UniProtKB/TrEMBL annotation:
Family annotation (NCBIfam families): PRK09987.1, rmlD
Enzyme Commission code: 1.1.1.133
GO cellular component entries: cytosol
Protein name as it appears in the record: dTDP-4-dehydrorhamnose reductase
């Protein structure tokens, strides 16, 4: 089996290289790859990559994930999160490949205190969510053999994430204020990668499983409680922190 991985150097991409390698011949690309185009700012290029390699499975871990930055560069976010996804979907359909794609809880409005279901209505509140939703729809429209995994609050040993940001700030500041009225499920990139590998095995034998799935770790927490756990574990590990006060604030404190 030939597997084409886009976004190999992101949080999820690094773990996917490990999890996917045992499944077959893995071709892993990122924006800097030279043998084939892995640059999502070039929709025609990534589509041509699919047509040249003709993989059995495409795993897309590439995306514009800077939520705040997407507001100031919506066209670029649309290009990476939707336009190139559509190009890959069309090319995958042409060569008969499966596409595994990751999306986000940002496609929802951010209200409520219980986990979203796949059947819940989407209503993104920002550019990032809008572009990720557009990518979902493009894949659903142009490639029947797809698995879309919506996830949330991803963390990993490599790359940038909330836990690492909080740890850095706690080393620099004596006091922090963290939101305590937004709920989510911190999800490890390792878990996502392992579940993806399992899903590929299943999908190749049961094509009827194609569709949309929410893929997150069990349980829920708030940003504040998540940060508190990070600091607790850091202190247990002997990491010195300047922090001595952690305040819980509503989301409205950060307009």
């Amino acid at each position: 089996m030939d597997i084409l991985l886009f976004g190999k150097t992101g949080q999820v991409g690094w773990e996917l290289q490990r999890a996917l390698a045992p499944l077959g011949n893995l071709i892993a690309l990122d924006v800097h790859s030279t043998d084939y185009c892995g640059d999502f700012s070039n929709p025609e290029g990534v589509a041509e990559t699919v047509k040249k390699i003709r993989p059995d499975v495409i795993v897309n871990a590439a995306a514009h994930t800077a939520v705040d930055k997407a507001e100031s560069e919506p066209e670029f976010a649309q290009l990476l999160n939707a336009t190139s996804v559509e190009s890959i979907a069309k090319a995958a359909n042409e060569v008969g490949a499966w596409v595994i794609h990751y999306s986000t809880d940002y496609v929802f409005p951010g209200t409520g205190e219980i986990p979203w279901l796949e059947t819940d209505a989407t209503a993104p509140l920002n550019v990032y969510g809008e572009t990720k939703l557009a990518g979902e729809k493009a894949l659903q429209e142009h490639c029947a053999k797809h698995l879309i995994f919506r996830t949330s609050w991803v963390y990993a040993g490599k790359g940038n994430n909330f836990a690492k940001t909080m740890l850095r700030l706690a080393k620099e500041r004596e006091e922090l204020a963290v939101i305590n009225d937004q709920f989510g499920a911190p999800t490890g990139a390792e878990l996502l990668a392992d579940c993806t590998a399992h899903a590929i095995r299943v999908a190749l034998n049961k094509p009827e499983v194609a569709g949309m799935y929410h893929l997150v770790a069990s349980g829920t927490t708030t940003w504040h409680d998540y940060a508190a756990l990070v600091f607790e574990e850091a202190r247990k590990a002997g990491i010195p922190l300047a922090l001595n006060k952690l305040n819980a604030v509503p989301a409205t404190a950060y307009p």
